[in-house]
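Regression check, zinc ion case 275:
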Amino acid sequence: MRATSAFSHEDVKYFNFGYNPISKPTLFSFIFYIDGLLIDTGQAKMRKQIQQTLAELDVDQIFITHHHEDHSGNIEPLKNQFDCPVYAPNKCCDLMKAPPPLSFAQKLVWGSRPAYRELKPEDYQIKTNQYNFEIIPIPGHAPDMVALFEREKGWLFSADLYINAYIGYYLKDESIAQQIQSIKTVLALDFEVMFCSHNLHFDNGKEVLKNKLQYLQDFSGKVVRLHQQGLKPKEIFKSLGLKEHGFINLISHGELSKLNMVKSAVRDYENGSLT
Ligand SMILES: [Zn+2]
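Current build output:
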């Protein structure tokens, strides 16, 4: 089943797209539109609905926050539809030339993410007629991920930095130490409203991010203590009472897994990035 809805806040329009192969969608991705700028392109599984929904907009540039398939799934079709440049951080441009393969679960829920070589690198700012968006690197969830910050308006487009107060699935290449640092970086910014790519906007963005920071620090602290006692990641997982979503873990071949989060804390502790 497919679902689409639209929202707005001040000058920001945003659109929510969800797909589920069997029942009502539970996972959604947002595309934002402000003053001619489109932020992200959604998932390939919703391409037709996305193209129809956005058709009324006057888009003159597109920006990609990171290479994940629910943000980069429709770059080429939307570039062709609006005949406009598509910008992304340098690291994202590189990753999109030969993006990492997707698991079956990711293909099933979001759809494929073809390579794209025409992205224009931009690491500093994106300007529209009325607004100036600073590009803030927030790696961790993805190595190339950035936020867009409009200082005058106090808007923060936080990509996948927040998503939720807890983490259900963790990708193999995520870094918990970088996530902690990125939240600290963002908390130092003077923003009023946080636009999350998988949730509605937050007027209490700092509060929810502080909760997430606490969660990540508590989790990694517990993992490190058990690791210091000599436990292996699987043993740490068990002794923390964690449970995998068996089906998702299976169909993603372990790509989406809470064990990955334990392993990330151990890895980051061992390489000195988690103190
Ligand atoms: Zn992501």
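Comparison notes: The mean pLDDT is 94. The radius of gyration is 18 Å. No diff flagged against the previous build.
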